[in-house]
Amino acid sequence: MHVHVVSGDGEAKFWLEPDIELSKNYGYNRQQLKEIELLVEGHRDELVSAWKQHFGS
């Protein structure tokens, strides 16, 4: 399971399981990546639920 984050500053991919981990980064700096990671952590349950609903368990 993973999530893509896209904005005018760049694009990143984070794995959601087994742990939240940066997979790819194009353009974000370290501070931006930390902020994104905190958002992903804060919404992990929602993201996993949406993934399972969209793609199946």
Descriptive report:
With 57 residues, the chain is α+β, with helices and mostly antiparallel strands. It has one domain. The protein is 44% helix and 32% strand. It has helices at 30-42, 44-55; strands at residues 2-7, 10-15, 21-26. It has a 3-stranded antiparallel beta sheet. The mean pLDDT is 96.
Blueprint of the fold:
Layout: E1 2-7, E2 10-15, E3 21-26, H1 30-42, H2 44-55
Antiparallel strand pairs: 1-2, 2-3
The separation of the N and C termini measures 10 Å
Strand order of the largest sheet: 1-2-3
Overall 3D form: elongated
Number of domains: 1
Assign the structural class, choosing from mainly alpha, mainly beta, alpha/beta, alpha+beta, or little secondary structure: alpha+beta
> In DSSP terms, counting alpha (H) and pi (I) runs of 4 or more, how many helices?
2
Radius of gyration: 11 Å
Q: What about the largest sheet?
A: 3 strands, antiparallel
- Low-confidence spans: none
State the order of secondary-structure elements, H for helix, E for strand: EEEHH
Count of individual beta strands = 3
* Range of strand content: 25-35%
| Integer average pLDDT | 96
Helix content: 40-55%
In short:
With 57 residues, the protein is of the alpha+beta class. The chain is built from two helices and three strands.
